[in-house]
Fold these 4 entries.
Entry 1:
Amino acid sequence: MLLEVKELDAGYGYLQILRKVCLTIDKGEYVCIVGPNGAGKSTTMKAISGLIKPMGGKIIFNGEDITGLPAYEITQKGIAFVSEEMNLFVNMTVQENLLMGAYIIRDKKIQRDRLDFIFDLFPRLAERKKQLAGTMSGGERKMLAIGRGMMSNPTLMLVDEPSFGLAPQLTENVFQSLDVLAKSGVTIMLVEQNVTKTLSVTNRGYVLENGKIGLAGKSSDLANDGYVRKVFLGV
Amino acid sequence: MMAMSEKFSLEFNLKAGENNFMSKNNKAFVGWIKSAPGITISGSIILAVFATIYSGPYILVNVIITGGMLALVATGLTLILGVLNIAMFAHGEYFMIGSLTAYYVFTPISNYVNENPDSILAITGPLIAIALSMISGAIAGVISEKIVFGPLRRRSTDNWVMNSFLLTVGLSVLLINLHQLIFGADFKGIVRYWGGMPTEIAGVFISRDRIMAFIISAFIVLVFWLFMTYTRTGRAIRAVSQDVTGAQIVGINIENIVLLTIALSCALSGVAGGSLLFMYPSYPTMGLEPLYMAWFVVILSGLGNILGAVVGAFMVALLKVMTVEYVGAGWDFVVPSILIMMVLIFKPSGIFGSEVRGVLDK
Amino acid sequence: MRAKDEHSAGEYQNAPDVDTPLHNGDTLLQDDINPFDMMLQKTGFTPVGLVGVILLLALPFIPPFNQEYLLRWLIYAAFIAAMSVGFDFTSGYINIVNFGYAAVMGYGGYTTSILAINLGLTPWIGILLGGVNAAVLGLAIGMTSLRLRGIFAACLSWFFGLALMGLATKMVWLTRGPLGLRVPRLFETESNLPFYYTIVILLLATYLICTSVVRSNMGLAFKAIGQNMDAARTSGINPVFYRVFNFTLSCALAGVLGGFYAHFYGILTPDIMQTSKTVEVLAVAYIGGRGSLWGGAVIAFPFIFIMEIVRSTLSNLPGLNLIIYALLLILVMIYYPGGFSYFFDEHLRKPKNRVLRYLMNGRQVN
């Protein structure tokens, strides 16, 4: 098992959002968390990536307890987080942003290989490598954020709301690139509001409601589940 | 971790909008000349040339020496503003610490050299003093981060910019009076570092110390700029200044970067104080003037803009030197501060700032 | 942690504590309250505050304070107390530090001094004119810093102050520069007593003006602007008026106080416009508790006395008093941002005893 989250409690300040969330991810899986706004999807991601400290529970990655470690150490252990706001370095060029993604890799040669790999994956970024990240369009920034996450050659990628604020065509592009990544063997955990689309591309899914896991199972089963259909798909 | 309401970040371009200085395109060049940086930079150059012809080249020499020192202090200030998000009021005190260190290191050295004039220390002694002033600046910076800013950051980051600013005010008063209490309020100065005959450059006699002071500041600014632009750590510092969360995500240890940043910028301030000891003797409130001037530079050139701070430093130096020359000594607070107020009122993002977040209230 | 900060951001004196249930007897309807309590309620004093004021008025007759040199300390303390009230009116409410506050004060002082020396104007009118002149300056600072965020507005007022101080130093034909002006004193007497009562009245007036403003709807608007400009704007508060008004009023108060300063000490140099003077006022206001108005006024007295005692008894250690206050400021900023007023509200304001409770809080009107 690659990642195991046991009874995770987390929140901001005094406000607890997650209550006893449990999930697991195996190597090579493509897992999604769906749920309504405010259910705690992003909070789960932030707690796993170390941006907020969990209030209780355990997070075990690769057999190692990473609960409460600072974010940079968790990144060094091989978890990359692509946040909803992307958190790009807006006054750096695309190439510099990508190099920052490989910050934890000190070997220049590996860095260059990773850079070539990303540029192969997203030719669009290669075209714009000298452009400042702040001047790019929304879709390109999303690509850059995902590319930056990939630069550190992570074992597990957490992707938060990649379709947020994007036009449908661009959303399609982003999902395609995630698909490519998943097929190349990267383990991905995806948080999305676009439930139909997400359940159609992932292997497995969790439904998070009010800070608790409501349902779990194969994505195809979830997509056909009566409750999910009624609440999220409105059918 | 650092949820701060106002965020400044470091930038490396002197561009305003689309116009690029380096462009070979004539139209772009004309456009750049018409932009705010174009007007101010070319205006300053014209002014400097005019003043040099009118009053003699010593004006230019003064501008270069003062500008070099200011560049050191102001880049440090800008760096702290960008990375730690602290509007530093105590930055001049690191200048004072630097000069104090240089004084206490150099005095015994110079006594020794007076007895043994052939000693190698006659040449290396000043360099040792200046290097130690840099190190002491860095140490003072690290200590203040550890016992002042760190605890505040851990306790609460609400209203961080204002609270940390007030902390630096307290720190400034503390350091000034510690100096007075321990070392006394008198002037602690030296006559010269290297001495010897002044060198003649283009018909002007410039003392060796001044030349060295300029070489040192130019060298340090250059190394610093290269470090920030091309090294992994330098990139990490810029990354933290642009997006703290993003920096954490890519695996940067923020605490280390914060510590490194404050050490670096205080070292820059300290070395400025150390290398100018022969011009400005050390006394408790000596840091105030470099502080005001550095703030002028930062406001003039826009926040968190390192290259801009270097250019702005020379502009402010020009302004100061010309004010002293043509308006009179003592007016060098009035005229620059009124001009800087104009900048703050009419172009709050500074002349090299792109539309910087955080300055304006929207 | 967060709750503490919100609290400290400004809880003015008589605000009923929402989270502490009141005993039946303490809460009265408007009609039941007697005129005395009503007056206290209106002016923003608690009974214990009133006792403090009476003590302040009686202090010059109580040994050891009846000695002239201690009376001079008292006058200076009351002066700093009044300054800190005016300073807190800006920094504690609209959350902008007026870093040129001492310079504004000096500007008012110079106005009245120059009028008195050159035109022979009586100081009483001169002080008022100084206030008006400082108000104009405050208007200018308020208008020009309107677009700027907190720290940059602070910088602007700081540069204003630097420029003013530079002008006062260099316009020798008018101000005699660093030599200083010889200013006629307010009262032609050796005794410090009339000066003391003047400054105490000024302190009370400053406090009453500031509290009456912040207890009106304006106070709410100030706080809204100070906490979140955008939110304030979207809820229909026009920040332009409130910010400019706040600056104008607090600078006018500083101008009047500066006039008193000049006519008390009889000599006015550009030194009083220095940033370090602002820092002194700032330290008192923050240690007293920002956003409380009264905190700084109360803490100024022990603070100034400790400073003066340290300075006069340990004169072989120059600067020690300033080190103490810098340390106090730093410690308060880091570990106890609410300052004295927060301490008072948390620990002294809720005694079990009903009489004490009345003394600390006054009657509370629903």
Entry 2:
Amino acid sequence: MDSRLGSADGVHLADKVQIAAKILVVGHFAVGKTTFIGTLSEIPPLRTEETMTQAGAEIDDLKGVRGKTTTTVAMDFGRLTLSDRLVLYLFGTPGQQRFVQVWEDMTRGALGALILVDPERLKDSFAVMDLVEKYGISYAIAVNYFDGSPSRSEAELREALDLLPETPVVTCDARDEKSSAQALVALVRYLQSRTRQE
Amino acid sequence: MTTPQEPDRDDIETLESGELVRPYVIINGRGFSDGNRFDLVTLVTASADSEQRWGQLDPEMRGVVDLCDGGYLSVAEIAGHLGLPIGIVKVLLVDLAEQGYILTRAPIPPAQLADIKVLQEVLDGLQARFG
């Protein structure tokens, strides 16, 4: 953790910060999103929970609200002050299609998304990739290598995840600051190349 | 992460709000959509004279103003520190802004966020910080 650009009290932002940017760190359950965010954040990661009324609960309308199913979706996030005027927030949430409000909130104004994948559970990443694409968010894939994960060739990964040729694929260890930062750097470079093209 | 809830419990929101009051009560029964002008990363601070009028506020609103008194924080951080759902915090912020207790940094339009300058600044910042 580095507080050179942070505020004196470690809680609030430095006085001159004007711009808040947002990058999403998404992936399936237990893929390492919270670890990744915690590794890079300058503040202890925070969690917020949103109460959701599940879609499809209308069938119970005759019984009133007591019949509805509520559930919570948790969002973990961290903060990185990157210059005198700019702060970057990293938001992580699981990819469940039904949490529309959370996804709308998260994706509004987001620069891009880093999709963390577990090479042993590639199929579990499909749902979250669908969501990121549906919301039109540019993304890079970061393969989070756990201890003992067998290496898989990039070509195999690309084929399994059906990636566009230009989509970056990087490997990282979410517990390691340097490799996690490199994954973000790869994403930002890709976003730059896309912005230039437009 | 999801927690399946028992379908016939009506007091689940009470547990989730971290307070012994249902969020619906905290926001005086107002609709959640009122908070849409606040983004997750809208930066908020307490206004200069908020402390003098602090006593007139509900406890939850006082909590927000108190937290924001030392400088700017994002909406998401306010929710995280206070243990309140984002939707509730947004509605509280709308009221507090209307009454002049809080100030926000002007939101950056999404078009400008994708600006090549912002991306370059993010890149430079990451590289300066992590080498």
Entry 3:
Amino acid sequence: MGWNRVAVVGAGIIKFGELFEKSAEEMIEEAYLACLMGVDKGIQPKEIEAAWLGTCRPGLHGYQTVGGVSLVGAIGLAGIPCTHVENGCPTGSDAFRNAVLGVASGVYDVALCLGYEKMRDNTTQGLLGLAAQGHPVLQRGETAMTMFAPQAVRHMHEFGTTKEQMAMVAVKNHYNGTLDPYSHYQNLVTVEDVLKSPPVCYPLNLLDCCPQTDGAAAVILCRSDIAHKYTDKPVYVAGFGMGTDVPYVHEKEKLTEFVATVRAVKQAYSMSGLTPSDIDVVECHDCFTITEILNIEDLGFCEKGEGGRMVERGETQIEGRLPVNPSGGLLTKGHPLGASGIAQMVELYWQLREDVPSQDPRRQVELRKGNALQHNVGGRGISNSVVTILSRNA
Amino acid sequence: MKASILGYGTYLPRYRIPREEIARAWGGKGRGENAVAWVNEDIITMAIEAAHNALTHSGVRPDEIGAIYLGTESSPFIELSTIGVIGAALGLRPDIDVVDFGASTRAATAALKTATDAVCAGRIHKALVIGSDSRQPSPGGELEQGFGAGAAALVIGEGPGVAQIYGSFTYATSFRDTWRATSEPHVRLFEPRYSREYGYAKHVTEAVQGLLSEMGATIPDYHHLVLYQPDERASRGVARSLGATPAQVEAADLFPQVGDAGAALVFLSLAAVLDVAGEGERVLACSYGSGASDAFAFTVTGKGKAAAMTLDAYLKSKDYLDYTTLLKLRGLLKDPSPPAKMGLPPMSPLISREMSELLRPLGAKCRRCGYVNFPPSERRICIRCGDTSFDTVLLPRRGQIHTFCINFYLPAGFDESPLPVIIADLEDGTRHRALGTEMKTEDVKVDREVELVVRRLATEDSVNLYGNVFRFLRQAA
């Protein structure tokens, strides 16, 4: 495929959480500065030629701040091209994909990609209210939960997946979150805690769901042939893909998978020449516990229907056959929509360089082939997905 | 006269309030129960289901209907016809006679008189006449013990049909006993005894005797007497003084099970009688409302086609409410937070464009691959195969749950919580998504049978938005 290779040479993230004391601009600035500081050999702001901003609901904190200028304006880079990407839950990873395309095209040598979401300045009721703005009849009563919970019911019905197996995803990701200093939640939970947490949307309980979190994360990308100017340990973009699906749930053929994910990962494997067995670590879209189970099937890590049992066998634990969401994932680290995809890139950048910022050595996954897979799925009708494969191999 | 009832259909809400439960809140005693409109029901949704049943029973196609006359005293609107939504949901033609009758519990018999005249004059061939009411009493008042809800519809046309209409008589004076000003939410009553004797008894008696005298008939000529029932006893007293036997009024005695369903009640009681009456039997019916009565004479001529749901089935499939829930249904006990705004208000052009296809509902069946696209106006290119030629099809209303969820955590403005979201495969294999209604959480299961019914989905800027929701099939408990 004719594209100029792209490398990630810097990554930065802020502590995710309920950041009532911080403005959106402060979050952006902090992630940007952390990212600049994260470039091993240093970088000057003026070296950044273009920027991409991922934010999904830019009016959440009270007024509309749509458009790329809200990024460059906040970080003193007004003047350079900046594009705002909004694409549902894959907003951050789609902004990354577009930044990659910008560099891969040869037009830009160095680009910034930053994602943020200020979720917590709004009330939970306010966020739910946004869901009331879909099609007034066809999507009446839809919230984020109602777009994933029916898949859980059908998966349980067809494949015997259990609520206990779903709870084990939360238990694992909470454990991982306690190792990650940037994670919103920092506590352990048990299967019983999850099962006994209040029902939110049957069959999902409170601890099956990600929290409402503020966050921001950023990466710097460049042409891979100049990556060593910035670091001796660049991480390369081995492949990526984006898949879409029909937007209404009644139009979907199967309610036990997200076919957008299947389509996205097929492109990413084909582009990178890699297969599921080449992947050492995964950061995937675990907005709900059931989503992670569907994802590991849709991404090709087990047969359809086996996801729950793969979790139960411990294969997705940080020391397992395929560590999934070592950062704690959306369930524990949090899901600030536009930031989530970029935060996954940040995590995988560190994992592939074997320099995760933690005192606890258990946080680092074991690398075998040096490849990692990032994934988001969401958007209207859970009908778009972005997959990125990163590699330490040039 | 040559107009006949070609078919009839009824609807009663699933929920009943025992009158004892009202007495528990306010004192006194109560016997029997009232049918109560559920939180997403109103006279429009009840009228739609009754009219569906009437069309099925008559065998008349929606496009044959030349007039729709609806009588109610509890329309949600002073200005805004209720009939547009009903016509769209039933698939009636736009070039038909459309009239809202209101302001009285005799509104439906007034509508029947108009339909009969129009058919007899040869101006209309087939008319749909609907009575629908969800009566709103003030809490603690005298009327609360008796107010009910329901709907009934008649298809009127040239006979023979189910029953021939061969006489009518109206008696109206300036008498006033119950009223509701446009600014008031609840019906008021001046004095019960005065109302019963000088209002109800006098007007019903005059109308019935007027009709008998005009027809040269007497009470014993009729097998059944169907009298409007404002309470438990009034109709029995009038029947007795007219010389009727208890056997003549027995079949029409719905008040103990339904309550005063206003404009719907005489049609509901007539349906109860027609369900049991034999061919050749004669029926005399009389309404009452605020100083006026319409009396009609019928002769039973046939049985009609089998209806999906009979009055008996609606009477038997029921659940009971407590008084607190009743207050919530009536909007008297509510969460004060403003409802979450929809993306579009109910009067938006999008809703007008899609109203008919969403309510009936209609699909666009791809001529190449057979996939039924929904809604048709949003899928001009088949979402499965990309073809562009379609046949419009009516989606079946029944299906089985494919999957579902039950949402315990909703934005403000949803009346049912927890709220099921149901994804079902309809009888033709089309997958359909709609909210669930009247479902207990533990009863919702994959593969369970459900059916689509029209309900109020939301209210914004005082305007209602209607759409289909799934409910379990109504079956006798």
Entry 4:
Amino acid sequence: MTELLAVLIPLPVLLPLLGAGLALVLSKHSRTQNVVSIVILSAVMVIAFVLLFGVDREGAQVVAIGGWEPPAGIVLVADRLSVLMLVVSSMVTLSVLIYALSQDASDDSNETPISVFNPSYLVLCAGVANAFLAGDLFNLYVGFEMLLLASYVLLTLGATAERIRAGVTYVVVSLVSSIIFLTAIGVIYAACGTVNMAQLSERLGQLPADVQMILHVLLLLGFGIKAAIFPLSFWLPDSYPTAPAPVTAVFAGLLTKVGIYAIIRTETLLFVDSSLRVPLLIAAALTMLVGILGAIAQSEIKRIVSFTLVSHIGYMLFGVALGTTFGLAAAIYYTVHHIIVQTALFLAIGLVEMRGGSTSTKSLGGLMVLSPALTIVFFLPALNLSGIPPFSGFIGKVALFAAGFEGEDWLNVTLIVVGTVTSLLTLYVIGRTFNLAFWRDPADAEEPTEELVAEFAERKQVLQAGRKWTPTIGVPGPMFWAATGMVVASLALTVGAEPLWNLSTRAAENLSEPLNYVTQVLGGDAT
Amino acid sequence: MSLPFVLVLAMGFLFACGIYLMLERSLTRVLLGFILLGNGVNLLIVLTAGRGSAPLTDGKHLSTVGMSDPLPQALVLTAIVITFAVTAFLLAMIYRSWRLVRADSLQDDAADLQVAITKIIDSEAEASTEYDDTEFGDEAESPIVGAVDLDQDGRRVDRRVAAYRDAAPEPAADRDAAPESAADREDKP
């Protein structure tokens, strides 16, 4: 079993890279290219599931790449948290790929040149997997750079004026965060003489407290920009909404969570002794509030949801900042929930854009009767996001709040209050969006869309005449099914809440004992 | 491990210049700033190796005493390659931006401006019902170039907002606000 796992662990990074190369070679044959991409990502998903079961049974696995034993060589480490993230990310990337390919096949605008899309998308997947599996800080940096470079290309696909404008903001901000991260690595190496995370875990604790604090803050700044934590979150609502719908979906679902993952590692493995609990809690509260207030001011669905994305990063940060096993478990559960729900929501918004011709709440209307199936696909993840009881958003929030009450501290209680208010405001925003885009007569819109108004009137006439009305505009099947798949996955988080919660707790228990991680990576004698 | 002071100074200088340039609105300067910053960080990583002889052996003496640390040099090679690739991408983007809008500066986000304008127009619509005491017409015959833009109430108007408002199709709030408020006044005296 262990040998099998050791063979499988590098594959989520290797296979997509190989696929990216193949896709580039096959750029003239778009059909073959699509098949290659889908097969590769499906294989990664299967591998991720095998790894999840294997690692959950056998404990964390360490693979020394190139045969150099740690700490000399580069290691990939798969513990419960890594493989759980890997499973979720592989599910998301596969369904978004199917959605994107179907969308591209259905519109002839050539807005997204597919020969570029597939390779960069696969590199993005490889980068995400590499970041999750990285066992040393520099490899984490390389993983970040892989996914960022691919994301630059994806965000500016087609290079229209609007995308270039948004892309410049995104690229420059990401560059600053990368530079801060790289500086942190340089300074940490100067201080400790290693970049292996297990060794760092031992050596960083021996540094003077003030040096530790500087290194800690430097790393958190770099990751904070990537995770979009207030006040480092201003770039996100500006840049995400302009990208093609599937790209926004995978960015919103995954990229900020890679930042959160890195923060979890920093807090639990590297800086065990120097705690930044209070500043992190305050940042979490501000992220929640400022994000959701921004969402209220917007009138474009994509931007609204981008702002709620920023706001809900605050919940995960809350769980991480608590630092307890319970808090970490809640943060992990919430991260899994949020990746899936956010992706589902953005995929649904892409369908709305296709069906209604726009994503502005000022011009949409009547989608509820015109496209009931689409309404369900949008409405379920939207309710889930705002934390309505049977859904996983509710379970995640309850877990976070319970973890907050454990400490009996006034700051925790403030955070819980802020979290509740944010959740209610999310419900308000979602409710308003739903009322405007789905519920009302399209003719009541401030800037009515002619097609929707005409279709709405036609439906009324047909129904009054007693005939059966069938919509003239539909959405492509695979796109719809990919979005539905994500919605079903988000519902499965409720049905399978107990096993997932237990898994999150086990992952959090692993994280609470960094010494175990160190012994596993460096061998038995490292105590 | 003693660091050459001049190089540390040079690193600080690169960081300072890079950050200063990155704060500019002009994209070319941002790019130059990024290159300087990137080189500053690369220098930092090289410096962590410390002074010493090249990490090579002649096969007879296998001691590492007096050698500089080879790992930072491996790290810095990766970092240089990544910086290089990103610089190329950024250059291409700046060129594309120049081709598209003939501007080398960062553009404002249209949707952000929209939110800002809606607010200004809303407050105007409220204000104009109360203070309708201007003695001048809506438009000047020969506007004075370079003067501060004032709105009807004598407050200063942001030029970019004003320019956007002129260029864009009239926002809905503007159209709806007037008749609605008129109707309100009639209904509810």
